């Protein structure tokens, strides 16, 4: 175990091209700042898109992504490189409990915030159990993996995307033929960047695709009058610095019952993050798993308390680390500070609000589809054997429950499709496992 809670970051020798910079090493401060800015750019597209799809203030989401990253940094003692951004796992539940129509601020945001806080609390409690198991010399990660093997986590992640599919399709169709055409153009822009570009541009496909689609929309709508013009008057009127639009939570049992199961998804995401970082750095991160869960859970609660989205460890930033081979945790402190500064810029938030609805609709199709495929990727990477009937039944039932939004009502308590699919997958896997061994 380390002798001190925080590492003593030593200056790394980065003179050799492609040299690996360990989590407890650091670059010169100018390079640290540059790398921090790059991580902000990497997380930006998804962290902004998620609140827009839920009707949250993107400035608050950006601000709380920075605050959440610092909270995570403190809980893991600066030993796990990670950036926390807006989680897409909450979108379906938030839209369901608020009845959000998909345009402008969400009028029922408080109900969603209360449920997000409850989810963060459940996540934190799971983390405390794992943390305690690790502290007693046990393998806290083992029982998490036994409860949620790849066949379960893959199915649950896929369900999130499938459950959101009707929302994405409705947003892409829009109110006119022009709206539907622009949604298709947006899909082609993101797809083209993903396939025909390389390097950092390819890694930033969401952000670059969003910018390119908005430029095309502005030419066709503002220039040629083919659709509703983009309105930049709010950007001109907004001040450079000011407070974002904070919101207070409202706690309702029905909403909490629908969103709390998302904690299982966050556990799976964080577990995958630590496994990926362990593989890339050659260091065992399992002993920090409980602390990582608690850090992410507390960050989610703090974010929800002021009007922000739930947060999770970001795969986009893992990609940046994989490319640069720079894993210094100090880089993420600087990235968090940059995000906090951006969060206090109303002009920045006003610019985000100019994104046209058809562009967001097209982005929804891509992002929700990628979430569904990410679940399938978990099966492929972990070589899940679907010739085994237990795996086949668990995956099949989970996908249909989630995609069909199978809802269970017990009095005032309601469990929506994602929650039903999540708990159903865990319980079904356990039951079928016992039966097979009998």
Feature tags:
438 residues; mainly alpha; two-stranded parallel ribbon; two-stranded antiparallel ribbon
Offer a concise description of the structure.
The protein is mainly α and 438 residues long. Helix content is 68%, strand content 4%. It has one domain.
Question: How is the secondary structure organized here?
Answer:
Blueprint: E1 10-11, E2 25-26, H1 29-54, H2 58-75, E3 84-86, H3 91-98, H4 109-135, H5 140-147, H6 150-173, H7 177-196, H8 199-203, H9 205-223, H10 233-237, H11 253-259, H12 262-281, H13 289-306, E4 311-313, H14 315-324, H15 330-343, H16 346-353, H17 357-381, H18 389-403, E5 408-410, E6 413-415, H19 417-437
Parallel strand pairs: 1-2
Antiparallel strand pairs: 3-4, 5-6
Q: Overall 3D geometry?
A: globular
Number of helices: 19
Strand arrangement within the widest β-sheet reads 1-2
Residue-averaged pLDDT: 82
Largest beta-sheet details:
2 strands, parallel
Helix content: 55-70%
Q: Which structural class do the helices and strands define? A: mainly alpha
The rounded Rg comes to 21 Å
* SSE run: EEHHEHHHHHHHHHHHEHHHHHEEH
Number of strands: 6
User: β content, as a range?
Assistant: under 5%
Membrane topology: Multi-pass membrane protein
Transmembrane segments: 60-76, 83-103, 109-134, 146-168, 180-197, 204-226, 246-268, 288-306, 326-345, 357-380, 413-432
Keywords: Cell membrane, Membrane, Transmembrane, Transmembrane helix, Transport
Organism: Bordetella pseudohinzii
Protein model, in words:
The chain is mainly alpha-helical and 438 residues long. The protein has one domain (25-381). The chain is 68% helix and 4% strand. It has helices at residues 29-54, 58-75, 91-98, 109-135, 140-147, 150-173, 177-196, 199-203, 205-223, 233-237, 253-259, 262-281, 289-306, 315-324, 330-343, 346-353, 357-381, 389-403, 417-437; strands spanning 10-11, 25-26, 84-86, 311-313, 408-410, 413-415. Strands 1-2 form a two-stranded parallel ribbon. It has a two-stranded antiparallel sheet with strand order 3-4. The longest helix is centred in the first third of the chain and has 27 residues, at 109-135. The chain crosses the membrane at residues 60-76, 83-103, 109-134, 146-168, 180-197, 204-226, 246-268, 288-306, 326-345, 357-380, 413-432.
